[in-house]
Each structure stands twice: as C-alpha cells, then as structure tokens.
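Give me structure tokens for this 114-residue protein.
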Amino acid sequence: MLLVWAFNQGLTATWYVAVAAAALGLLLGWRALGQVGTLTWDGQVWCLHDQGLGLEDALGDVHVALDVQKALLLRWLPASDTLQAKPQWLWLGSQSADNRWQDLRRAVYQRTNK
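Here you go.
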C-alpha cells in the first residue's frame, strides 16, 4: 500500500531508500525478538544454552543495559573466546518466566567476589 502511494507521489530515490531501510529494520527487529536460548545462573557464572547457532553452551557474564521492571535488556559477554561465542543483546520479559521473575532480576544484579 505504501509503495503504491509512493509511486503515485513521484518521490525521490531518497524516499525509496528510506522506506527500504525502515522495512529492513523492522524485519531484523522482528527476527531478533525470537528466543535465542536459555540463560541460567548457578550462583557463580551465567551460561547461555542452545543459542540456535549450533554452538555449544557458553559461559559468560551479563550486564544490565535497561531495566523496566517487567523486562530487561542484558548484554551477555562470553567468558572465553575458545567456543567462538560472540557478545549478544538479550531481551528478557517477565511473561516467559513470571513465577521466577524477581529471582532473575536479583540474580542479574548479583556480583560475585572474583
């Protein structure tokens, strides 16, 4: 619908590039909302399981980027380069673990003595 309107308006190539970039951004954002894996905490270290990339479970650390009570944006950083795991942004919502949500929120702020 938007493309038909754009063709009828005689918009410049800049508009077409902007619309294509917005569509690509929406597509990548929607794809990123899918479940990447399971994040577990054993009291000492975080582990990211089943990353959907065919990689082994990877140990790492999480840092809170955004906390809005019912959702968390975390930056997960691998503890080692040996598994070729890459840092990832993880968006966690309370609906996926409602009964343990407060425990999870406390754990991400937990700092161990290293």
